[in-house]
# Entry
Amino acid sequence: MLADVWLVTHKDLRIEWRSRVTLSQVVPFALTVLVLFGFALDANRGVLNAATSGLFWLTVLFVTVVAVTRSTAIETSDGACRALLLAGIEPSAVFFGKTLAVAVQILGVEILMVGGVLVFYGATVESLPLLLATCAVATVGIAASGTLLGALVAGVRARETVLPVLLLPVLAPVLIAASRAFDDALGVLAVDGWSWLGLLAGFGVVNAALGTLAYGQLLEEA
Amino acid sequence: MSTDAATTGSRTTRLLGLVVLVGVLALILLGFFGAPEDDEQRDAVRMIFVHVPSAFLTYTAFLTTAVGSVMWLWKRSRWWDIVAHSAAEMGVIFCGLTLFTGSVWGRPTWNTYWDWGDVRIVTNLILFLMMVGYLALRAAGGDENAVATRAAVVGLLAAVNLPIINRSVEWWANRTLHQKSSLTDGNLEDLTLFTLFVGVVVWALFFVWAMIHRFRIGWLEHQLSSIDLEAALVQRRAEATGESAEEANL
# Structure
């Protein structure tokens, strides 16, 4: 099982490495959104500083939509997902493998975005461990529900428009919890950021469990 | 096919519809003229005759969708799939009605249409948005079985994430304006409570009536798609054997 998970992750990351879609399209997209938020809030340092956590995680949600669309396209083109199933790989291994690959890509973008908010919004990091832990735990949950919903819309004609309508409301608790944890990590608000991590972990576990159960049926219908 | 087969009405639903009509009339009379105005909420208290039953039916509907989703994934039961779809549509309508009446009631009582600090309305809004996504997915079309499976997973996803959403909003909003419970705090007049009870019964009967009709529409749609498929199969077979479709049908 673990070998299969690694195989799928490795495959997706290798495709990404060769096509450079995340690096050449998703990273510029994320930085553009961060800059546009700066224009929308009139480059007001005080407002930007107070809203940094929310804007950061909202941008991550937009990035997720793009990353999941890309991850789904890899499997739907040329019936690649059928080939994966025929290869005898457990659907749950495919699910975890793709989740891990999406998580790695989103994490990479997040690290660059942290640099972005430090420079553009004047944010300062007060607790690096909390910041890193929030990114890691939240991203796994985001990637799990994103991969599940990505497979779900794979066979839908208007999948580009249906995916955000389905995914963004589901990710609302991640936006709330990760933003509050970041408020603590960036020293914006005096809240206990670590207590929010439990909720983020719960979200990840619930969505990973549902993905494990449903992914096989969804792949067959795609 | 006789014309009777294509209708969604029956003797029972007509009778039920009549009872609902009489009930709504009684509710209007009781709500506007019978129940007294509240000391604090004034006339706005009358909004609970719609708001509370709507909220109750929202959760009933979405719970039904979750059960229907499990039954589809487990038993591949078309009956439950159509029940899940029908209940989701009813749920979105009642959820919208709950949010609307809550907003209208909030303006004179809380002096605001919307309060971000209130856990229940924010959770309800996210639930509403998720179920609108569920209906969008259904509307996107495709193979009947594939649509049912996808929708069932979304129905379950909404159900399992609801407690997490509720908890996150609860922690996020450290204060709440929402009435703890108008039913148990003992401030409501007897006639107001009785009217609220009538409201819950009348709206619940309306829910059942509309559900039956919506289910029958779904069932007829399903039959229609089966008939179309059967006709197409007959035609393909006829093409293969060189007979006309009418001959093959005989």
Summary: Residues 11-174+190-249 of chain B form one domain.
